[in-house]
Amino acid sequence: MLGSGIIKGLLETARNFFGSFRQPERLVTIEYPEQQRTVPENNRSFPFLVFDRNDPVKGLRCVSCKICEKECPPQCIYIETEKDSRGKPIKHPKVFDIDISVCMSCQICVEVCPFDSIKMDQTYELSQFSRYDALILHKIDLAKSNEYYHQIKPTEAGLVDEQLAAEREAQIAKAKAAAAIKVAPATASPTPKPPSPAPPAKTEVPA
Amino acid sequence: MILLYSSPEALLIQLKSWTVSLAPAAWQPVLSSAISALVILLLFAGIFALTTLVERKGLGRIQNRPGPNRVGPCGLFQPIADGVKSLIKEDIVPAAADRAVHFLAPLVVLAPAALALALIPLGPGLAAVDMDAGLLCFFAVGTASELGAFMAGWASHNKYTILGAMRAIAQMISFELPLVLSTLTVVMLSGTLSLSSIAQQQGSYWFGLPAWNVFTPWGLAGFIIFLIAATAESNRSPFDLPEGESELIGGFMTEYSGFKYAVFFMGEYFGMFAISGLTITLFLGGWNAPFSFLVWIPSFIWFLIKLGLMLAWFIWVRGTLPRVRVDQLMNFCWKMLLPLSLLNILAAIFWHFTASWQFPGAWGLRWAIGFGMIALPFIGISQSGARQKKWGPRIYRYAD
Amino acid sequence: MSAVFIFLAGLLLASSLAAVMFRRLVYTALSLAVAFASLAALYLHLGAEFAGFAQVMVYVGAVAILIVFALLLTRNAGSDPEHPGHGGSWITGAAIAVLVFGCLAFNIVTSSACARPMPNPPSITTRQIGESLMTRYVLPLEVLGLLLTAAALGAATLALEDKRKS
Amino acid sequence: MSGTPLVYYLLLAALLFSIGLGAALTRRNAILVLIGIELMLNAANLNFIAFWRYSPNPEALSGFMFVLFSIAVAAAEAAVGLALIVSIYRHRRTTRLEGMSSLKG
Q: What pLDDT was estimated at residue D1?
């Protein structure tokens, strides 16, 4: 009969109304500033720089190779290399700025980095009152510890650590071998260049 | 001035006449009207603020959301925040708009609604304006809001607003017919157009049960028809086509912002209060208590409780039913409500002329026949409508 | 003359003049609604409550809205240039109107019937009106019902005609 | 209650009638002519109410009833008149009275 559907609908909404008081699990709303949704591990917002040994200045993994600066599609990364007292460049960034109002979170910088030094962050509360200055993150803002990296992306960070450890061991083994070879002929050759770091073994981000 | 306590209503009336008597004699009529107007406006503005909050919270709960809960404890100060927001918002008038008419339209919507509120008796002797032709006056002032809708739609110089205004006018004029025809039964059987006498006549009790109009067959049918038509008349969901935001942005209110929009909003809610008050007065026994042992509660409290229930009903319906289409709306009005309200008049006449039946079971028989006079045609119309696929369940050609 | 009368008469005359003078047709309809409303207020002022409300309901609620609808349905015609200020017919029409007013005013002012004193306000209840509608005036009421039905059918037929053809 | 003499009401009604007459005679838009006619009808109604109020026996309700009937008739007249205008507009694309004179000899 005409009108029975209306009554059915009214009963359904009444059930929802009273049910939302008696069964709190019905309420799907997350009341944001107090409650925050846990983001999935693969969530990414903007890049940050990883440092080791609790030293945000010296411990940066970045060697200022500028690959990321060149690869960045919107060109939001700016790097200046540190120089020693004689003006010779050393493997450390003096300036490392990322304009996150330009960054498009493409993760290309992470994928090209040979040293696993730049990674994607998960912070999203980045509102600022100023449009220009406050959204340019400097080296000191970008530097975050490896522990933090482990905290936000445990799987990925574990893989990266394993890989870095393996590379380091390989390097030490290689250096030992080289030393053994060099010691054996006992020829005083000039110190070889430290072996260039292993070819960029990319840490594939688990999809 | 000694306040003689006889009843809470008499106390209020004495308080007012005492206040008025303080003024010089020449100003007394003006002061008396001003006090009545102020009380009506303040009372219903307070109810308006509360209703907006309860509506948002209720709709939220219906959709399994908590609703507004940020401003103040449990979001109690939300209406204040809304008011401040609409006050400080920029008032935008379109460049092509007709400024004078654009300015006047919200007032033309609000003023008749407030006037209609003044006619509703909140208790015995507690109507701001108690006139002999009160019901006629109610419908007369109600017609002005159509003009307001048209002014808003035309003055904004926008195709959506004019479409919304046209829809609003067509809808209001169409639904005025079943609205008035269903009140006609009450007028016929109570023999008066005065709202306070209509409410007074429903004040008797029959074995402790109230003698409200809704407990008669014509009253029940009239109440349902009136309720549907009132929903359409006050542009509430599911008949909120004039502002159907999915197709018309905001209907005739599209080009309004800030305080003018708030005035429109207030006008709509005042209209809803007025028509709810009229429903209560005509069918739900006005200010009378539902049971004879509850008459010690003051009449205006009963009225406000009933008003709250009516508003809850409107919110519930809004949270449940989807908006109807224009052709469905018009078909429903002209092919369903109008014939039924005409038949309802016949049922009322039958009830009136069988009032002298005295044999045992007469009341039940009258009820059954009177109810059948409306229920059977209703079933007939709905069956034939379903056969013509006019009102059947919707067929989704692509979705299934 | 009471202040209320002066105010209402001024409003009525101004709005009805505006209704016939405005070039924009929608203004015409809106000021016509104001004129009807002020006329209804005059009826209320004269103690004819029922007639006043009927006036508001029928004229403001129905006739003004109808005129608005008609104006919008015949929208393109409304932009026709109209020059009431030129042409002989305008002067003739206005002259006739003034002449008619002169005749009426002369007769009204010199009439002895107008010197009537105002009686006490009559106590007409709605019930009395209804009863006399159903007794003394029942034939006109029935005829009126017939007329309204015929008018409703006629208007609907006129408006439907085009749709059936196309 | 108003102490306005009857003559002012009659003069007001006469003025209203003349305004309506002027509009009906001079305007060329059919809708405006209809508005003029409505104004004239209303002037007559005002006269009826005023005479009813000032009559020695207002309980007879004659003038009052006349106004009620006249309001109802005017509503019917407006509805049919406007329907005619709209349907002529559909054929002729005009609401000017000159455009509707094809039957004129």
A: 45
Tokens 């205006």, residue?
B300
In terms of residue numbers, what domain contains B116? Answer: 97-354
Provide the number of structural domains found in chain B. Answer: 1
**Residues 92-131 in B contacting C (C-alpha not used; CB under 8 Å):** 101, 131
Cβ separation B169–C69 shorter than 8 A:
yes
Across the interface, of B140, B191, B194, the residue whose CB is closest to C57 is B140
pTM of structure: 0.81
Q: Is residue A168, in this structure, part of any structural domain at all?
A: yes
> Is B147 in Cβ contact with C60 (below 8 Å)?
yes
Burial status of residue B125 (CB atoms within 10 A of its CB: 0-12, 13-18, 19 or more): middle
Q: Is A144 within the bounds of a domain?
A: yes
Task: Give the list of residues 6+ apart from residue A66 with CB closer than 8 angstroms, or none.
Answer: A79, A81
- Tell whether A51 and A146 lie within a shared domain: yes
Which residues, given as ranges, of chain B have pLDDT below 50?
1
Task: Report yes or no on chains B and C touching (3+ CB pairs under 8 A).
Answer: yes
Q: pLDDT for C56-101, tens place per residue?
A: 888 888 888 888 888 887 775 544 455 444 455 778 888 888 888 8
Q: What is the CATH number of the domain that holds A138?
A: 3.30.70.3270
Q: How many CB atoms lie within 10 A of CB B184?
A: 17
Q: What is the distance between the alpha carbons of residues D23 and D97, in angstroms, rounded to a whole number?
A: 13
Q: Do residue A55 and residue A143 come from a single domain?
A: yes
* Partner B contacted by C92 (CB < 8 A): no
Residue B380 lies in a domain: no
- A141 lies in the same domain as A61: yes
Domains, chain D, ranges and CATH? 6-97 (1.10.287.3510)
Q: How far apart are CA B88 and CA B109, in angstroms?
A: 22
Q: Which chains touch D (3 or more CB pairs under 8 A)?
A: C
Q: What is the mean pLDDT of residues C41-55?
A: 86
Residues of D (26-55) whose Cβ lies below 8 Å from C: 26-29, 31-32, 34-36, 38-39, 42, 45-46, 49-50, 52-55
Which chain C residue's Cα is nearest to B166?
A: C69
User: Distance between CA C163 and CA B180 in Å, rounded?
Assistant: 30
Instruction: Compute φ and ψ for B365, nearest 5 degrees.
Output: -65, -45
Chain B: give the shortest CA distance to residue A2, in Å. 6
Interface partners of chain C (CB pairs < 8 Å, 3 or more) are B, D
* Domain limits for position A118: 47-152
- pLDDT for residue D42: 92
**Interface ipTM:** 0.75
Whether residues C98 and D87 touch (CB distance < 8 A) is answered with: no
